Fold these 2 entries.
Entry 1:
Amino acid sequence: MKIYKVGKDFEYIRKYGPVMKSILIINEKKKIENVNRDTIRKAFQEAAL
């Protein structure tokens, strides 16, 4: 998993397109745009299964 931050990270643009806020990418397949504690916790649980 990797969290890309807008204005700081730019390598995500080629793969996922431009975004206006931080995103979380799971296994380079699933994109989560609403990044907060709950979504990060759920994403880790899903990735662990």
Note: The beta strands are 2-4, 23-26, 30-32.
Entry 2:
Amino acid sequence: MAIEIAKGTARQLVREQTHALIQVRSPEVAGATKALEAAVTEIAQLEADPRDGPDPDAEDATGPKCMSNVIPSPSGPMLWLDLGEDLGAMAVRRIPKLIAKALRKAGVSEATVACPQRGGPLDELISWRPEDYPFGSGMVAWAPPGTAVPDSWVDAAMDWLSDLGADDGLWANVAMVQFRLDADAGRRLLRAVIDSRSDGCLLVAGDLRRRVRTVHACAIFDSKLTLAERGPEFGSQDRVDTAEELAGIGRGLAGDVEYAAVDLDVGYDFNGDYQCGKLRSRLFQHWGTEVVDGVFWWQVLGEGHLARMRDTTGCVALTAPGRYEMRCGQAAEWLPDLPSRSQLQQACADKLAHCLDDAVRNPEGGLMLPPLPGEDG
């Protein structure tokens, strides 16, 4: 077998345009990855093809609008592209050939360039509608942007999955391409995707018809880890017990995070918009050890948070230097649809008022907070 381009690959790229995904399938993974990284440079310099005709609205910029880093996967490295609107079909069709050329130059002897099939059994889990797949309890942890994600995160993630049958196999989702893996391969994939800073990696253990445990990690801009448990047979007491277990895991990771939080109504990913009952214009993201992005039952805070807080009662020092845990009430009081949840959200917001970002502080239909120093009111 030589270097091949799968039938329909160029046509698929043209069709997907703003959310295109291309892959190199090869047993020579290291060489294929190196070749795809080299091809990225060529693709970035791709110019409009005269055969596509003049476009008076096109800008002078060359190449795709945006590209990911090379994304590791069990079946071969992948690349996500937003090809924008300025590159015509003929220019886009050159991309698979540029990758094939890079593979030959790198000495790869066997590979297929193709657009991978996306989707699979995890689709209902990934949906953000809890009516499609019930929410559960989850924990998010943040590390400083640009720093290496510690091994303790990967260890905690795999331990979390192992308690619900990871040894029987895992499902993985990377760039919406899904794979069935054993636990060792899942660990390697999680580490590789984190280190590549290319995309998020979702690992799932358990039975989708009953309950699952999930791990989601992403290190593109911030380093973020989410552990969660949910499913049709995941009841209210399960939410409470799992939240307590996750708080214990958070304490163990406190020395390797800048911030962590546990809530009792999350999906596979810890979405601050949903938890805070708001739809905001930007993604839930970490703001260091002074600002938090929401109000939750249990949180790990830093010295900077405490320095900004008007009331630090209830903040307990952890063994990790400069880290504190803060509980707002009991986990059972944060169950969805209980009046106590919104009441405790408000109480937590009052304590963290000077740490909350402007989006959470927006009083329009949301939390009413005291003014920050220097604000009117």
Note: Residues 159 and 236 are 23 Å apart (CA to CA).
